[in-house]
Design goal:
The structure holds 2 protein chains of 2 kinds. Helices cover 54% and strands 10% of the residues of chain A. By secondary structure, chain A is an alpha+beta fold.
Amino acid sequence: MDFTFSNDQLLFHESVHQFFTNEVTPELIRELWDSPSGRSDALWAQLVELGLPALSVPQGHGGLGMNELDCVLIAQECGYAGLPEPLVDTVLVGVPLLAALDDDRAQLKDTWLPRVAAGTARLAVGQPGRALVADAHVADLLLLAHGDEVHAVPRAAVTLTANASLDPSRRLFRVDWTPGAATRVAAGAQGRALWAASLNRGKLGTAAQLLGLALRMLDLAVDYSFERKQFGKPIGSFQAVKHLMANVAVQIEFAKPPLYRAAYTIAHDQAAQDVLVSHARLACGEAALLAARHAIQAHGAMGYTWEMDLQIFMKRAWALDKAWGGRGADKARIREALFGGRLAIGAGTTFAAAG
Amino acid sequence: MQLNYTPAQQALRAEARAWLAANVPATPLASFDTAEGFQQHRAWEARLNEGRWGMVTWPTELGGRGCDLIEWLIFEEEYYRAGAPARVNQNGIFLLGPTLMEFGTAEQQARFLPRMATGQDIWAQGWSEPGAGSDMAAIRSTARRDGDHYVLNGQKIWSTRAVWADWLFGIFRSDPHSSRHHGLTFILLPLDSPGVTVRPIRQLNGLAGFAEIFFDDVKVPAENVLGGEGMGWQVAMSTAGFERGLLLRSPARFQETARRLVQLYLANREQADRDPAIGEAVMRAWLDAEAYTLSTYMTASRLVQGGKIGPESSTNKIFWSELDQRMHETALSILGERAELLPEAPDAGEVGQWLDGFLFAQAGPIYAGTNEIQRNIIAERMLGMPRA
């Protein structure tokens, strides 16, 4: 029993944090907001140089072969930085979906996975029952759902209609396309299983980003509480403001363990993944929403302005909180398992799935 | 990260489970806040000690098993799973015991630890005073040096277990010219010392779970000072340190409450679901108890590897105490009109111990540093916000 990250995992996390701090500044994010694509080829090239899109690509396909546990802290940092580029969906959803296809799709995998790792191609992933696809405009290959089927569709074969988001960093598109035998890469039970796994990976990546966003908003609000003075003192010296921040810190501290547990569970393909992922998703989402609410309160009227950088992270949290199924679906999954008697509960059962 | 138990950890669990199954009393003991129940619980402590399960984290030469914190968590899971009695000895074995091991002389350790382990000496704590609650450094009770003795005067209050306990540990102002956390001394004394008056205080449930203690020229030998004169604050901070806080607030306790709450809900679901908030609250109780458990395993893993506990531990106290309140509130909502009935009321049916747990849960956010004080600690020491 050892519930800690390895030194390698922590060092990698720290180096990515440093890179994002230096390169993915609020100024850059605002520049990207005003650009037509909202994306930067130069920034993506830097991410490729750090090996980030290759993280989860199998080693046989030119990647680093890392698992969800190796990637979860990186996804958290993407949240902290407010990174607009679709790194998390690529690493935690797109690549694993492509890599999990049958060997009779070897050609598709041999074609695309090395290119993703090398940064010469990008993926976008749809979701069953959802019309909009994030970052479809910069993707070379789209992995789309048609019922239970998985289709791999080149961008040239789809028509995109942009849908503006609250978060100017989000680029969402309605994708019009025609499913056919040529694009179908999985169907039936296999397709269902692939989409179910993608949903959990999407939720995991979203939860990690939401936790990072919560940490960032807390940091911004604490910094501001030193700068802003009223009654001759920094507002952070007032207990009312302190307790707003402390409540956010409590939520964050108790969202981390479920998040890391969920990443471990997927990485080791253990039972009860749905429940553990949904727990992480709920805890991280609620930490982010509380952080947004209390951070804007601590900023006062300035928090309501376009000028303050806080909006970058609040809007991202508000938008991502609804991504990959939203919290209602998570609560339903947990309720069904818990009240349906499908879970061992009580003292000593927490790691039962781990044996 | 490796989230499974080693064969040695599994063996410890199996051994604890077997021993508890054979030894936990079949009928629940009376409350340890009654004269009869106190002696029953004292006997249970002796039994635990005979099985070497009394203080699993203590060294083997003192009757423990030298368990690390992960092994302690495993033992606690089995303990709560078995429905074993509450620990009347916890002030001693979890708070004072480790403090004696850190600050005590060899003589003090030999004198106090074995009798503590067997339950022969049950300890009460004497920290709070009428004017020193959250502001603990405002202590005014005095210890005046007089030859080879100290003479104690003043008053302590909210002293848990003090009504029937044998000994008291507490901090006293030994330097009359000192203020705040300077000039304090940590002193151990028998509660039957001449000049000590223990006045029971009835708690919300009507039982005398704590007491106020008056000191009128109480003579205590100088050898009963722990950690040296003037070192009281440092010794007390160590006693209150998180690692011991961790030892007192076993996640297993909340997991078992959550499990019973799920069962209560499922047994009364049709009625309970008339308020959809109840099902949601039950689900959250289970999730939060799991989150607390996971968090404790994360902290324990870090400490086992030599990490240090930091101010983020103040988030624990807030989380478990508010969780405990919510769980019991939810249980009473499910019980509905029966919720107000005491278990012995003729028409109470199977209301169980929820009401008593509900009352006890009201104390959680208050004792061991109020949650408001914990929030200040989080803001100032964890987040680095400016001091008032």
